Each structure stands twice: as C-alpha cells, then as structure tokens.
Amino acid sequence: MLPLTGLKVVELGHYIAAPFCTRLLADLGAEVIKVEPPGGDPFRGWGAKHNGHSVWFSVHGRNKLSVTLDLKSEEGKRRVKALCARADAVVENFRPGYLERIGLGPEVLHAANPNLIIARISGYGQDGPYRDKPAFGAIGEAMGGLRHLTANPGQSEYPPPRCGVSISDDLAGMYAALAIASACWGRERGNNAGKVLDLDLVSSVFSLMEGMLPEHGLFGWVRQPAGAAIPTAAPTNTYPCADGKWLCVAGNSDLIFARLMALIGRPELAADPRMATNGGRCEHAAELDAAIADWTRTLPAKEAEALLEGAEVPCSRLYDIADCATDPHFLARGMVQKVADPLLGEVLHPAPPFRFDGIAPAEMIRWPGRAAGADNDHVFHELLGEAR
C-alpha cells in the first residue's frame, strides 16, 4: 500500500507544472485521471520520439489514467464535473480566469463537490497586477531571482544561463503536491473543506532565495553571482581536470581543509594563520582555488576524485546523464529503473525520490505514460457509470 492509495485526483494540466505535481501524487499511490484535449497534451510533441511516441511522456504521464475531453463542449464540461464529484482534488495550470470563462471555475466545481481541493498553478498567481501575463518556466527563473545568480562573475557579455531543466515548473508542482496533501489532511480533520490553492512559478523560485530578502531589508545587500564558488565557505568550488572534466570539491571545515591541503602537497597553507578559520579562508579563496586547481589539472577527474575520497574530502565529478545511468550507487539505490513501455519498448525511468520501508522503488512505477485517451472506456463507463 502506497501512502496516498485511495486519494483521487483530476489533472486538468498541460506541459509541465500541473502534470509534474500529479506525477508525484501518482507515484505515491494516488489515482490520477489526466484530462487531455482530443489531440493529447501538447507536451507529447516535445523532445525525442520513438515509434511515433514521446519518450519524455513515458515518465511525465506515468501512473496516470488518460482520458480525452474537449473542455469547451457540453459533454466535456459535464464529464469534468462528474470526475470532480468523485475526486479529492483537481489540479490545473491554465492562465488565471480560463476555467471561469469556459464554465468550470471553482464555484461550478464546488457545486459538484463542496469538499473538492482545487489547486491552481499559474505564472504569477491568481491575483496581483501581473496575473494575466503569460509565463513559462524561464520567466519564473528570471523574475524569481534565480537567473540573476547563475551568471559567472566577470562575464557580463554573456547572458546568465538557465539551470538546464524547467526548475520553475517543477518547484511549483512540488509545492502544489505538498499543498494538496496538506489541504486533504486538514479537510479530514474538519478544518479545510473545499479550499482553493494558489501556486505560481515566480513565488516558487522566490521562496528559494535563502537569506537574501532579510539581508537586503536590513543591510541593503544585493547578492551577486558567485559562479561555482560559495562566498560564505572556502574552499568550495569546481576545478578543471586533466581530461577536460570538472570536479566539485568542498573542503570548507577546518579538519577537512587540513586533509585536503596535505593531499595536494600544500600543508603550509593549512598551517598558515590566515587560513585558520573559514572566515580567513573566504578572504583568501582565490589563493586556495589556484592551489587546488594546480593539483586537479594534473589528474583525470576520476583519479582525482578517488584520491579525495580516500582522504575523506567531499567531492564529485560533474555527472552527465550517462554517468547517472551507470553509477553503482544510483543502481544500488534503484534510482534508475528499467520499465516495459508498450509504446516504446524498454525505457529507463528515474525512480521516485521517496523511500518507504517495505516498498521497493520499482513498485512505485506501476505503468508508464499511456496513449492519449487510452482509459476513456474505463473511466467514463466503469468509474463514472455511463451507459455504453
């Protein structure tokens, strides 16, 4: 029994944020019915395809039932209301006001089910002066403060890069999943019936800005990009190796620092009074980084990593997906799963990041993403009881 077994969720989502939220809930055992337009979620057209089907959607739609409905049609609206009548929660990520315009706003859905939790994910939120502006994940990174920090110092001629994944959408989806679970918990205790939850991409990114807001409010500070280093801890940085790979090293406690300096043949730096504390090391981080880089440049990344691990210095090569797929720790923890996909054949899935005693990671992937509308008959006729 997965922990959310019995929870019923309707997804009126497309692209990333809402479907990511429901994927987490489905991985945890919830029954998720994904409502797609007749042509399928536009996300099915993203990324690589195999046998004519989206490879990415195998993960994106896993553990969900797929039905196709035209939400603007009377039949579509009727069926959505029927699905919500038997559900605990519904998740949507349309632009604010869209569901109201097509006749499926919160008042309508709560008329069908007064206890329904309605999670709404948007770019800027359901109110405020920007609520009607369009937004995708990159906008959440930009306005939420993250993209400002991803620049490399001294390279103002280049735009700060995105982090490489749709982090804004994923964050909003994770927060929505947490909010839904919290609202359902509260509802079971009589204090949270029929709530509307408001999540947005910008706020989700902004919530990760650590102590930057109080620092700005008190001192007027504006944190600036630090590249691969951590301004408050040294030495911590990413260093070049002889084979062109990069190695992340975190030697920023007193004992670890001493072991690191001994390993790279610079014990005099560990004995230097200037380097006796983390504060002093931060002041002289450039000197330490140069010494460490002089050492890493003489070795391939794997060899340098092994030596550092032998000295109990925290480190890691910068993994690409091929490294992740073959790493013995990933494999031992079941983080890479082989899944039989009827549409694609055998495909690799990232396992859910949750660990529950007695439940193997493979047991949490019950099926991969289905074809659009694959469950129309089951959902409409068996779950909703419509006559054939």
TrEMBL record:
Chain ranges passing through the membrane: none
InterPro entries: CoA-transferase_III, CoA-Trfase_fam_III, CoA-Trfase_III_dom3_sf, CoA-Trfase_III_dom_1_sf
Its EC number(s): 2.8.3.16
Gene Ontology molecular function: any one: formyl-CoA transferase activity
EC class (word): transferase
Sections of the chain in a coiled coil: none
Keywords attached to this entry: Transferase
Keyword set includes Transferase: yes
Protein name as annotated: Formyl-CoA transferase
